[in-house]
């Protein structure tokens, strides 16, 4: 009986983790596609953007997980998230060759669209 319950728990955990990864990947792909249209990015730039944005997402997820488990405080999590976001924004700005002020409206639009992505 214990083995069955343990197996079920592991299966559910794996399914949830895998599903979350797929969701993040879907959001990332959408972001990169929209950025490629908006800023006329070539394949190499799109690949770089995909990697850079996924690094930010992973940093957010890790910080959130650590905060929930009590490893870090909420303030520490916010600091990690700010740093990851700042690093991404800087990289994205360099990649598209525009200052942050010019890409900010795109990033705001993407935040809204990604929230509603299905």
Short description:
This protein is an all-alpha fold and 118 residues long. It is built from four helices and no strands. The chain is globular and about 45 Å long.
Question: Which structural class matches the secondary elements?
Answer: mainly alpha
Number of helices: 4
Regions with little confidence, pLDDT below 50 for 5+ residues: 8-19
List the secondary-structure elements in sequence, H or E.
HHHH
Give the end-to-end Cα distance, rounded to a whole number of Å.
Answer: 38 Å
The helix content is: over 70%
Estimate what percentage of residues fall within beta strands: under 5%
Kindly state the mean pLDDT as a whole number? Answer: 87
Principal-axis shape = globular
Number of strands: 0
Largest sheet: none
Radius of gyration (CA) equals: 17 Å
Protein name: EF-hand domain-containing protein
Organism: Wenyingzhuangia fucanilytica
């Amino acid at each position: 009986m214990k083995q069955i319950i343990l197996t079920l728990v592991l299966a559910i955990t794996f399914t949830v983790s895998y599903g979350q990864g797929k969701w993040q990947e879907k959001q990332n792909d959408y972001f990169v596609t929209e950025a490629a249209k908006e800023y006329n990015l070539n394949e190499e730039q799109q690949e770089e953007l995909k990697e850079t944005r996924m690094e930010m997402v992973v940093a957010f997820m890790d910080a959130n997980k650590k905060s929930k488990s009590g490893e870090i405080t909420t303030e520490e999590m916010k600091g990690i998230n700010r740093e990851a976001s700042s690093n991404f924004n800087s990289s994205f700005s360099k990649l598209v060759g525009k200052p942050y002020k010019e890409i900010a409206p795109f990033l705001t639009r993407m935040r809204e669209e990604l929230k509603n992505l299905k």
